[in-house]
Amino acid sequence: MPADPHRRRAAERAARHAPPQPDSAPPTRRKRPITPDRITDAALQVIAAEGYDALTIRRVAAVLGTGPSSLYAHILNKDDLDDLLIARLCTEIELPEPNPARWREQILDVYGQIRDQYLKYPGVSRAALAMVPTHLETLRVGEGILAILLAGGIDPQTAAWTRDALTLYVSGYALERSLVQLRQRRDEDTWVLSREELVGRFTALPDDRFPYTRRYASELTSGTGHDRFDFTLTQIINNLPPQTTP
User: Fold this and answer.
1) Which of 45, 145, 159, 187 could be cross-linked to 149 through a Cys-Cys bond (beta carbons 3.0 to 4.6 Å apart)?
2) Three-class SS string for 132-154?
3) Given a cut of 60, is residue 235 above it in pLDDT?
4) Do residues 157 and 165 make contact, with C-beta atoms less than 8 angstroms apart?
5) Does residue 21 have a pLDDT over 80?
6) pLDDT tens for residues 31-48?
7) Please, how many CA atoms are within 13 Å of residue 17, restricted to the half-sphere of its CB?
8) Is 123 left (phi over 0), alpha (psi -120 to 50) or beta?
9) Residue 150, CB half-sphere, CA atoms under 13 Å: how many?
10) Which residues, including other chains, have CB under 8 Å from residue 171's CB and lie 6 or more apart?
11) DSSP per-residue string spanning 25-72
12) Chain-centre distance for alpha carbon 235
């Protein structure tokens, strides 16, 4: 006996609006592959939250939800990770077309950018110390700085050593600032003094042993923001000898 057409249509309509039945075995969610970019992202995440001292291969692996062995398929060791970190920060540096009339201003601007990138991640500038750059982005920034110095008429040997000195100073400056910021976050580290407290301690020193420290306590503790940074770079740049004509 043929089925009632009204019942058949009702059943079809109900089937269309019924929620889908789950499969007996839900599909396995695939993990995102580990890549050098993801490793670098995770490492910067650790540094931003906890500082460079907290950075380890195991800590980065934990952020990525994997084991350390998964990272070693993409990086050789901690030094290799340092290279990736500095290279990532260098991608943010904008290099100008070298201008002989503005080369001093250009050098200050480029190193100011590097300083600001370092300060975003407390202590990361330590990764740049004693490191031989191999990544193309790091080399790109070094090439740009050298080009600016040469455009300013500085002889190649002086330009090469100046680039090294400025880079070392910026790394050390950023490291010191980062260490102070990290210590200020910790309530137990009360040794970080305000300028007023430091002036008070200097002026309280015995005058017979520390006459100049007492007298110039204000000058010794002066400077806000990046005043000392700009002063040091300007002193180095303004005292570079021009290239001599053979």
Assistant:
1) 159
2) CCCCHHHHHHHHHHHHHHHHCCC
3) yes
4) no
5) no
6) 789 999 999 999 999 999
7) 5
8) left
9) 10
10) 118, 125, 126, 128, 129
11) SPPPPPPPPP-HHHHHHHHHHHHHHH-GGG--HHHHHHHHTS-HHHHT
12) 25
User: What's the pLDDT tens digit per position in 127-157?
Assistant: 999 788 889 999 999 999 999 999 999 999 9
HSE-CB at 234 with a 13 A cutoff on CA atoms is: 7
Rounded Cα–Cα distance for residues 237 and 219 (Å): 23
User: Phi and psi of 67, rounded to 5°?
Assistant: -100, 160
How many residues are given for the chain? 246
User: pLDDT of 152-203, one tens digit each?
Assistant: 999 999 999 999 999 999 999 999 998 887 777 766 556 567 889 999 999 9
**pLDDT of 16:** 38
Would residue 235 be called left, alpha or beta, if left means φ above 0 and alpha means ψ between -120 and 50 degrees?
alpha
Segment 199-219 shows an average pLDDT of: 96
Tokens of 199: 């002036």
CB 39 within 8 A of CB 49: no
Q: Tokens 């070094």 correspond to what residue?
A: 142
Q: Which two tokens stand for residue 128?
A: 């740049």
User: Is the Cα torsion angle 174, 176, 177, 179 positive or negative in sign?
Assistant: positive
- Which of 146, 136, 41, 147 has the alpha carbon at shortest distance from 91? 136
Any idea what DSSP says for residue 96?
A: P
Distance of CA 113 to the CA centre of its chain: 10
pLDDT at residue 84 in the model: 95
